[in-house]
Amino acid sequence: MSVRSIAKVVTPNPPRPGSPVKIRNSIGSSNQFNPFLLFDHFTIPSTGGFPAHPHRGQETITLVLKGGVAHEDFTGSKGVLYPGDLQFMTAGKGVVHSEMPVPNEDGSPSVGLQLWVDLPNNMKDVKPRYRDLREWEIPQVVADDGKVIVKVISGKSHGVESQKELAYTPINYYHYKVKAGGKFKQELSPGFNYFLYVLNGKNLKLNGNTTVDKYQTAFFNETGDYITGENTATEETEANESEFVLIGGKILNQKPVQYGPFVASSKTGITKALLDYELARNGFEHRVKWNSLISRGVNKSMVTGPLNGCPKKRAADKKSYLDSKI
To answer: Coiled-coil intervals in this record (predicted)?
Structure first.
């Protein structure tokens, strides 16, 4: 077995001044990383958000880190994601949806990560679908005498596998927290591209020779069976903890053409997507009659009512799930 080397470490541009939504972007249309089309670290105040907008030809994966994010689409799907929850959305042949922050009682913004993943060309016209993954459904690994904690969102880590396939394009997704002095070794899937994004900390050393700081992204080369890492801090404090996500995706033998939220296999496909959306056809038929509940903002009555995001119900669902595992 061989270590997978780092191709480059990138520091994304800081969020644009004056914008209510703060975004750090590591992957985008000018720097795609097969099969990934976009990777954003977002911070959204209650006055911001992403009102009704379309997608076609890709999947999106959203992880909420702080606060809450409400979502709905023109197929009738709706709900609320809270810290630790994920949503896997397949846009397929077409979807229009809204993603808006849930106001937090202390006025703080909602924070999360969003990933766009290319769909294989022969699956770009599948029906849209959603899969919500609650934080209590995610297997967790504790290693190195408690110094390393891994949430196995999708894939396998330290002998523990995720519970279900969540995307058409095979994805590995690991959320790590490493205390001072903690060390880890993560095996990787062949034929996958991987990148690592640091959420917190400045003491993470990868493969024994490369330090990656907060908000930086390490992109790995295509070959190699594993990576290693350690938190080089000597004092165990909350400030010294390293937190990051390691994400991999199966490399697709295709070159996507992207125009904003539309992804196709050719420029002709993009033109078709724009026309289909404008004319409300071929997957976008519901666009004309659909009125988004949340595009102008989310309030408490929406959360406890039609969005089905009542905290008491969430607590009951969590208890029921955990009791079923005893």
So the answer is: none
